Amino acid sequence: MTGRPSKMTDKVLDAIEEVINGEILFMTDEELVTEINELLPEESRFTYEAFSKWKREKSQSENPLFPRFLRLIKKALIEQKKTLLIKLQTDDKAWQRYAWILERKFDEWNIKSKSEVDHNVRVVQLPDIVIQ
To answer: How many of the other CB atoms lie within 10 Å of CB of 80?
Structure first.
């Protein structure tokens, strides 16, 4: 790597881990970055844009810490999904709210898109059949 030193350091990854071990159910990525940066000294803080590039694997993929970063992001998503599923099962009055969040955050839980049928009909010209 050339240029300035990477912002992805052990200190940053430790802060990410500390935040995702807390309650992050309804956090956006921007809020997550804000919470992480609150735990870091000024010189270690990073931007939302940098975080977005890291997540899209557009930068830092050569950094030896990158696999740990990806594991932390995956862990955060798993924890969010677990929390949503628990709330969905235990909140008899507002379970629909958690179902709505779950299906919008996680494509594999979006039942509507899985059950929609393509109603576009393609017309195929068949050859004339002569019956004798």
So the answer is: 20
- Degrees, nearest 5: CA angle 14-16-21: 95
The pTM of the full predicted model, rounded to 2 decimals, is 0.72
Q: What residues make up the domain containing 96?
A: 10-115
Hey, CA dihedral for 54, 57, 62, 64, is it positive or negative? positive
Say if 88 falls within a structural domain: yes
- Could you tell me if residue 109 is inside a domain? yes
Domains: count for the chain: 1
Residues 66-116 pLDDT 10s:
999 999 999 988 888 888 889 889 988 888 888 888 888 887 777 665 555
Chain centroid to CA 46: how far? Answer: 19
Q: How far apart, in Å, are the Cα atoms of 24 and each of 18, 48, 54, 58? A: 11, 16, 19, 24
Supply the DSSP symbol for 42. G
3-state helix, strand, coil in the chain (%, to 5): 60, 0, 40
Residue 131 lies in a domain: no
| Residue 19 domain-assigned (yes or no) | yes
